[in-house]
Write a structure and sequence with these properties.
With 424 residues, the protein is α/β, with parallel strands linked by helices. 45% of the residues lie in helices and 17% in strands. The chain has three domains: 112 residues, 2-Layer Sandwich (Gyrase A, domain 2), CATH 3.30.1360; 123 residues, Four Helix Bundle (Hemerythrin (Met), subunit A) (Up-down Bundle); 141 residues, 3-Layer(aba) Sandwich (Rossmann fold), CATH 3.40.50.300. The longest helix has 25 residues.
Length: 424
C-alpha cells in the first residue's frame, strides 16, 4: 500500500503547519528527514533536511506507530513553521521518497474506515463536524462521531440476530416439539424493535440542520417584508424602497440564532395582477417559497396569508396604519420595536422543529436504511411462512449492516470521503 502525505492544518501562511504522513513508509521517511526516529508518541525537536542535506526547517516531530493511530497505520507528523515556502519545501522532500504520494481528499479518513478505526456512521459524523457552522450542527455531529448511533444500530442488529436464531430453530428442528413453535417473546421483541425504529424515523432529519429553519417574509408590495428581513439579519441585505415592487426575486440568507441555523427568505410582493413579466415571475417564486417554508411571516391583510402563517403587524410605529385585530406579533422593523421578541419566538419555534441539542439526526441515507429495516419487520406481521419470516429478518439485518458500513459500495464510499479536505 502507498504511503500518503498531506497538509492537515489550515492553508498557509499560519503560525504552525502540520503535515501528516500515513502508511508503511512513514517511519523511513521520518527517520530520513529528521536524522533519527524520536520516541513513540513523544513530541521531539528536530532539524529537517532533504535527501541532499539541505535544511528545510526546525520542527517538532511525532512518531505514532500503528495500529493504535487515527488511520490504523504508522503515522508521522511534522509540526512546521507555517510559511508557504516551508510547507512547499517539505512536501517536495516527501515526494522524493519512494512509495510516497500526496493524499487524495478524505484518504486519511477512508483508511481509518478500512482499518476499522471508525465505522461508516462515525465517518459521516466526522464529515458533518468538519462542515458544522452552528452549535446545533456541531453537537449533533459529535454524537454521531462518538459512536452513539453505531452502538444503537448494533443493539438493533443483535435483537434481529436473536429472533433470527429462533426462526432458524423452527426451520431446522420443526419435528421437535420444544422448538417447533415460536416463543411469545419472538413477537414481543419484534414489536418492540418495530416501535423503536418508527420513533427514530419520526425524528427531525439531519438535512434540517444543514438547510436551517426556513422563514419566509410574505405579503403585498410595500408591506415591510424587506425591512423586516434586514432587521432579522441585522444587515442591509435587501433593497428597501417606497416604490412598490422593488423586490422582484427571492432573496435568501442563512444565519445562526442561539446556535440554531435559520434561512430567512425575502420575496416579491404578492398581488393579483402585474403588467411586468419579471415581477410576475417573482410573484410565482414567492408563492413557491411560501409553500416550502417551515414558517411564513405574513405581513399582508389579516386572514389572507397561507394556513399556519404568523400574522405580523409590521408597522406599529405608524399611527396611519390599519392595525390587525389579533396579530401574533406587533413590531416595527424600522425602529426595532418587537424585533427582539420575534427572534425569541422564532428560536423557540425552531427549537421544537429541529433535532434537540445533543441528539442524533439521521441523514437521508440512514433514514432510508432504517425505513427499509422497518418495512421488512412490518412484513413479518402479515407472514406465516417461517421461510419468508427468515428472509425479512435477513433484509432487516442487511439494512443495519449497511448503516455502519459492513456492506458498502465503492461509489457510496467515494461520494462520502470525497466530501473531506485533502488533509483529512
Amino acid at each position: 500500500m502507498d504511503t500518503v502525505y498531506a497538509l492537515s492544518s489550515g492553508a498557509p501562511p499560519a503560525g504552525i503547519a502540520v503535515i501528516r504522513v500515513s502508511g508503511p513508509h512513514a517511519k523511513a521517511a521520518l527517520n530520513d528527514l529528521a536524522g533519527s526516529l524520536p520516541a513513540p508518541r513523544r513530541a521531539s525537536a528536530r532539524r529537517l533536511r532533504n535527501r541532499s542535506g539541505v535544511t528545510l526547517d526546525d520542527a517538532l516531530v511525532l512518531w505514532l506507530p500503528g495500529p493504535g493511530t487515527a488511520t490504523g497505520e504508522d503515522i508521522a507528523e511534522l509540526h512546521l513553521h507555517g510559511g508557504r515556502a516551508v510547507v512547499a519545501a517539505v512536501e517536495e522532500a516527501l515526494s522524493a521518497f519512494p512509495g510516497l504520494r500526496r493524499a487524495k481528499p478524505g484518504e486519511f479518513t477512508r483508511r481509518a474506515f478500512a482499518n476499522g478505526r471508525l465505522d461508516l456512521a462515525e465517518a459521516e459524523g466526522l464529515a458533518d463536524l468538519l462542515a458544522a457552522e452552528t452549535e446545533l450542527q456541531r453537537r449533533s455531529a459529535l454524537e454521531m462521531l462518538d459512536g452513539k448511533f453505531s452502538r444503537q444500530v448494533n443493539d438493533w442488529r443483535e435483537a434481529v440476530l436473536h429472533v433470527s436464531a429462533q426462526i432458524e430453530a423452527v426451520l431446522d428442528f420443526s419435528d421437535e416439539d420444544d422448538v417447533a413453535v415460536l416463543p411469545a417473546e419472538f413477537t414481543q421483541r419484534l414489536n418492540a424493535l418495530s416501535a423503536e425504529l418508527l420513533e427514530w424515523l419520526a425524528k427531525p432529519r439531519a438535512e434540517r440542520l444543514k438547510e436551517g429553519f426556513k422563514v419566509v417574509m410574505a405579503g403585498p408590495p410595500n408591506s415591510g417584508k424587506s425591512t423586516l428581513f434586514n432587521a432579522l439579519l441585522d444587515d442591509d441585505a435587501a433593497i428597501v424602497s417606497p416604490i412598490a415592487g422593488t423586490t422582484r426575486d427571492v432573496l435568501e440568507r442563512s444565519v445562526s440564532l442561539a446556535g440554531i441555523p435559520f434561512t430567512f427568505v425575502d420575496t416579491a410582493g404578492l398581488r393579483s395582477h402585474s403588467d411586468d413579466s419579471i415581477e410576475v415571475i417573482g410573484i410565482e417564486r414567492a408563492h413557491a417559497e411560501a409553500l416550502a417554508a417551515d414558517l411564513v411571516l405574513w405581513l399582508g391583510d389579516e386572514g389572507e396569508g397561507p394556513s399556519g402563517a404568523w400574522e405580523i403587524d409590521p408597522k406599529c410605529d405608524r399611527d396611519d396604519r390599519i392595525a390587525k385585530h389579533r396579530p401574533d406579533l406587533s413590531l416595527s422593523a424600522k425602529t426595532g420595536e418587537g424585533v427582539g421578541l420575534l427572534r425569541e419566538r422564532l428560536i423557540s419555534r425552531a427549537s421544537n422543529a429541529m433535532p434537540q441539542p445533543g441528539s442524533i439526526a439521521l441523514n437521508m441515507r440512514q433514514h432510508r436504511l432504517i425505513e427499509s429495516a422497518s418495512d421488512a419487520l412490518s412484513e413479518i406481521a402479515v407472514t406465516e411462512d417461517p421461510l419468508l419470516v427468515a428472509e425479512q429478518l435477513r433484509l432487516a439485518r442487511l439494512a443495519f449492516d449497511s448503516l455502519i458500513g459492513r456492506t458498502s459500495t465503492e461509489d457510496m464510499l467515494d461520494a462520502l470521503f470525497g466530501r473531506f479536505c485533502i488533509g483529512k
